[in-house]
């Protein structure tokens, strides 16, 4: 049953990045959109994510619940040593959602709209930034379970070059996901070409930020290159991600939007697989200590069995409804209603 729980944990993280990350990405795209095109971009964005943006946070909730119930030691360590970026992440999610609703449904059109716009855009940038910082901190080896001062325990556990570089890489990937997804939502040929240009720009930014991650890993002595290129699975995942990227660039102007979405989703999934597989089952890399493993830091067997059963039963009940939600709104947009 432990493998079922671990699989659900990994899938929840991947799906949150693919779906929730794309939602964050539309705010990032808006941040780098000219005043002339901002209204068209917002209108396209509302049609794309308006009906289902809240549902995407379900994957983050599932991941947190799995850690809380199935791996309490890991959950407690992350909650203690990374409580500052976690609080910023949660505040960003709340601020973004609030601004998204108010700027669209507020009955009074006044100067508050500009405040809502600024909150939405900046929280769309800050939230994935700190999501990536948390992910980088888990792997950086800077979490010190034996720290005796505040800065070492609660600040430098996440405030380091590697974690910040992973945060910037996450922001770029979210923008890349969103721009590719929005190609299929474009209202006319002009918007279609504009989102293609943004997809290419964000992809270049992601590649540059990815290079920055490797440079920061070298400076911080994080064995990232060994994890990715020293393992057959990781190396294969990188090769597949590169091939899918090449194919995406050759097809990006073809109008085959479904293929483009599959390719960008596959590419990001392979990147996450390459990073996560080599150090499995270690989930948190601890400084000068024993790493937190998904096998040794898990809850008692009966708890894992109950959690695994709940996840399986919940999938049968919830996933069909979620897929129907996506389908119904896509069909609604196709019918023009």
UniProtKB/TrEMBL annotation:
Chief site of localization: membrane
One of the Pfam families matching this protein, by short name: Cyt_bd_oxida_II
Top EC category: oxidoreductase
EC number, as in UniProt: 1.10.3.-
Transmembrane annotation, as ranges: 6-32, 53-75, 81-103, 115-138, 158-182, 202-219, 225-250, 262-286, 306-327
GO molecular-function terms, A-Z: electron transfer activity; oxidoreductase activity, acting on diphenols and related substances as donors, oxygen as acceptor
Membrane topology qualifier: Multi-pass membrane protein
Record's subcellular location: Cell membrane
BP GO terms, sorted: aerobic electron transport chain
Listed InterPro entries: Cyt-d_oxidase_su2
Domain of life (superkingdom): Bacteria
GO cellular component terms attached to this protein's record: cytochrome complex; plasma membrane
Protein keywords: Cell membrane, Membrane, Oxidoreductase, Transmembrane, Transmembrane helix
Family recorded in the similarity comment: Belongs to the cytochrome ubiquinol oxidase subunit 2 family.
Protein name: Cytochrome d ubiquinol oxidase subunit II
The species this protein was found in: Chryseosolibacter histidini
Lineage, opening ranks: Bacteria, Pseudomonadati, Bacteroidota, Cytophagia, Cytophagales
């Amino acid at each position: 049953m432990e493998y079922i729980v671990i699989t659900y944990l990994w899938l929840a993280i991947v799906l949150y990045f693919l779906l929730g990350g794309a939602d964050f990405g539309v705010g990032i795209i808006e941040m780098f959109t000219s005043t002339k095109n901002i209204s068209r971009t917002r209108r396209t964005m509302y049609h794309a994510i308006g009906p289902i943006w809240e549902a995407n946070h379900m994957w983050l909730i599932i991941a947190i619940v799995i850690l809380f119930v199935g791996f309490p030691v890991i959950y407690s360590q992350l909650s203690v040593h990374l409580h500052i970026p976690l609080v910023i992440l949660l505040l960003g999610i709340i601020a973004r959602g609030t601004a998204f609703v108010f700027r669209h449904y507020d009955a009074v059109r006044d100067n508050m709209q500009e405040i809502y716009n600024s909150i939405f855009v900046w929280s769309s940038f800050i939230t994935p930034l700190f999501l990536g910082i948390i992910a980088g901190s888990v792997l950086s080896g800077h979490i010190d379970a034996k720290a005796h001062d505040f800065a070492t325990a609660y600040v430098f556990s996440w405030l380091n070059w590697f974690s910040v570089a992973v945060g910037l890489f996450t922001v770029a990937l979210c923008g890349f996901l969103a721009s590719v997804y929005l190609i299929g939502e474009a209202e006319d040929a002009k918007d279609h070409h504009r989102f293609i240009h943004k997809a290419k720009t964000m992809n270049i930014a992601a590649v540059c930020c990815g290079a920055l991650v490797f440079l920061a890993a070298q400076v911080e002595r994080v064995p990232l290159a060994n994890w990715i290129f020293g393992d057959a699975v990781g190396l294969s995942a990188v090769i597949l991600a590169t091939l899918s990227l090449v194919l995406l660039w050759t097809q990006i102007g073809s109008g085959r939007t479904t293929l483009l979405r599959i390719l960008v989703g596959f590419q990001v999934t392979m990147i996450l697989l390459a990073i996560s597989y080599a150090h499995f089952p270690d989930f948190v890399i601890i400084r000068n200590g024993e790493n937190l493993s998904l096998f040794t830091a898990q809850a008692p067997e009966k708890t894992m069995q109950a959690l695994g059963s709940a996840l399986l039963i919940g999938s049968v009940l919830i996933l069909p409804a979620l897929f129907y939600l996506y389908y119904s709104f896509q069909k609604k947009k196709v019918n023009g209603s």
